[in-house]
Amino acid sequence: MIAQAMQSPEPFLQIPVLMSRGVVSYYPSKGSTDDTPIMAPEMPDQHDATTSFYFRGNLTSLLPQSVPANVDEQLFIAIDVGDICSHDGSHDNCMVTRLNNISFHLPTTTSLLQAHYNNNMSTSAISMLKEFPRCPPSSEFGYSPTSVGTAVRTVRYNTTVEIVFQNPYSSGMFSASNPMHLHGHDLFILGQGLGKFDPVKDVQAYNLVDPPVRNTALAPIYGWTAIRFVASNPGVWFLHCHMEKHVSSGMALALVVEDGPTPETTLPPPPADYRSCDGGQNNRALADE
């Protein structure tokens, strides 16, 4: 087995180009051990995004999947960077990441799950609460101002949700690969592409037969990826980029899944020893940990 890590080109941080080699043996094995040195094939360049893109695009599930045909909620999420005032007395701006022009800010007093359970998902409990929009305010990247807030999108129980993640697609824009991770649910990864998503042509090429099922979908650099899932897990779930620098600077939102019709599909009460974030404590309350 031969492995070599791929990475984005500069100005992104570069790591040494190292190749891993190993032998996988199964026990009991009918074959004989062989100490012959492992010969490495010619590997693609570490910055060869095309090879990586087509490798991911050819992945499928081992068996056919029951992909929901009817979509109840469609979201188009633009991923990019923006500027906000640094509030340090200078005239400089601070660069942040954002989804649909909102840079996510964690609540500081009441957790989102607590506010949802108490039916108090409002600015009285979450001071910077914002409803996450279905699409960005502009179809072009970089032309709309950045807002900061606790971005929340609420969906009904058992809703089929489809999301298209769109990275900046022009070579003159800053773009990066973003692994988008959703807590509490598995995702059907329907397709990916380079450039701007076409809601007619690209939808026709969706894999609705045997798509990969994961909890993380990579939005490729200068491209898009489409996912679909059933919101069947009541609660508050974090949707965020899995790169720490990106999520800590705002590339996230909270998905609220409402209760279902039965006790089994209803969010249970907090445990008796649950420690509240209320009371003026300056805790940064996560969505669902």
UniProtKB/TrEMBL annotation:
Keywords: Copper, Metal-binding, Oxidoreductase, Repeat, Secreted. Residues 143-259 form the Plastocyanin-like domain. Residues 279-289 have a biased composition (Polar residues). PROSITE patterns: MULTICOPPER_OXIDASE1, MULTICOPPER_OXIDASE2. Residues 260-289 are annotated as: Disordered. GO terms for cellular component: extracellular region. It is found in: Secreted. GO terms for molecular function: copper ion binding; oxidoreductase activity. PANTHER family: LACCASE, MULTI-COPPER OXIDASE. This is Plastocyanin-like domain-containing protein.
